[in-house]
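User: I'm new to structure prediction. If I give you an amino acid sequence, what do you actually give back? Let's try with this one:
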Amino acid sequence: MSTGKYDDIVVEVTGKIGIIKLNRPKSLNSFGGKLVEETISAFRELDEHPDTVFTVLTGEGRFFSAGADIRATELSSNKQYSNIAEKKLSFLGGCVGALELLRSVIDHKKVFVLGLNGPAVGGGAAWFAGVADIVLASTSTYMQVPFSALGLVPEYGSALSFAQSMGVHRANDFLMFGRKLTITELEQWGLVNRVLPVEGYQGSLKGFLEGQLEVNDGKSMMEMKRLQNAHLRDTRILAVYNAMDALAERCVADAPQKRFAEKKELLEGKIA
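Assistant: Good question. You get back a string of structure tokens that encode the predicted 3D arrangement of the chain. For your 272 residues, that looks like this:
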């Protein structure tokens, strides 16, 4: 059953499985439009759903998400500020949506399944994988985060969550150097639990979760999540805030602005 009240996502509930599908395939499910706000609302909705055990976040089309919408980001604008404080506060204000989205994910009571239907780049790779309870990826998936190349920092707690998931040295290789990880590497490095065929991926994902529900008690799985994550919660929230502050400082220093402006110009040239 679809709730049918969103523009940039689709929310479906089938039995004990709630699915949030990013639905901007023409923009590779980048974080523009109402996508962030609607995803926050959907997580809140499913958090209080009386029947669901699993909350799945996945994408429509060939990409899971390409991360930031370069054409819409403030980093590619020429906005002027009267002082440094005004400039930093402006950038911090632009981070509030992501901050609340990550808080909603970290505090989510249901078992959070990241369904990587395809490639995940930038924020699409960094925001969710490290804090997901289970990651199910298609054979077409790869992940890459070019934060250093853009003059940015690992976004919204990913420096900590990826170190927790794959180890410090591998996280450094991925986040610091922007290494592109293949689906084979993602599975070998422990970031992906299972790999499913790209053909019929969404059906296979749902079938796998339904199979788990046939064998395992839903409440017990949710309690397992609660017990494991209880001591991690505050450190993850602090990591999100610290990354937001570091990102704002990079923007105050104008580190990413030129690089984003160049990419925006390139994108607009391809569209024209």
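You can read the tokens as a compact description of the fold. Here is one thing that stands out. The mean pLDDT is 91.
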